[in-house]
Amino acid sequence: MTDKIIEKDLSYRLGGIFFEIQNELGRFCRERQYADSLEKKLTDCKISFQREFPVSISGRKSNFIDFIIEDRILLDLKAKPFVEKEDYYQMKRYLEITNIKLGLIINFRDRYLKPRRILNGIKKKDEFVDSNEFVISHRLEGFTIIELLVSMGIFLVLMSIVSSGFISSLRTQKELTGLISINDSANLTLEQMMREFRTGYHFNKTFENEIEFVSAENKIVSYKFAGGAIERGETNELAVKTYRKITADNVNIKNFSIELSGGGVGDGYQPRITIAISIVGMSKNLQN
Fold first, then answer.
1. Are 118 and 105 within 8 A, CB to CB?
2. What is the pTM of this model?
C-alpha cells in the first residue's frame, strides 16, 4: 500500500521555487535575502502566504514563522552550515500550535538543496540519526599470530605518524565550528530585535545603551546592553519591567551602541536605528 504524501502538489511547486532561488542567489546570502526573493516569487505565482507570522508560546508572541503557505504548509528558511536538532524541535512546536500537518525546513547553504519535511504528530524511529548498513564478510581461515603482530605493528606506526596532524585538524575544526556558532547566535539575536523594531513605534533612547518602544502588541518593550549580553525588557500591567537575556551563553558582547536618527520622539514614525556590536567567544581561543 502506497503511503499518502501530504501536500504533494503544493510542496512540489515550492521545491521548484526553492531551486530557482538558490540558482539565482547562490549559497552564501543571508536568510532575509532568500526570504525577500521567495516572497516575490510566491506573489508572481499567485500562491497565497503570510510572512513572519507571530506565534504565541507561553503567552508571548515573540516567535515568528518565516512563511505560512496557503494555511497548509509552514516554511522555516535557513542559511547556516547545517540544520540542528533544535530546528526540527522548533518546527514540531510550530506545527502543534498552528495545527498544520506539514512543515518544511529549507537550508539554502546546502550544496545540494533538499527541503526537510516535518510532519505534525509523527515521529519516526531514529529521526535524527543517520543509519548505515554494514556488510560482514566471513573468512574461512583465521589469522596467525605473526600476521596479527605484523598488522598491529603497521597500524601503530601509521597511527603515530598521523596522530599529530589529526589532533591539529580537530582543534582547527573545533575553533571554526565555534566561530560559526557564535556568528549564527549573534545573527539570531539581531534578527529578533529587527522583527520587533519593524512593527514597533514611539521609539525612545532612554539610556546610552538602551532603546524603548511600543510593540505591535501595545506593550512597552526595551532592549539594553548589560553584563556582556543583550537583554529584552517588557513592562507588565503593573508597570513593572522585567528583563531576560536573549543572547546565547557562548556569546560575550564586548561593545554595544545604538543610535536613533530621523523621526521625532513620540511622533509615531519609525526612526532609522543603527546598532553596532563587537562579540567574542567564551573560549580563550576564540577571543583573538
1. yes
2. 0.43
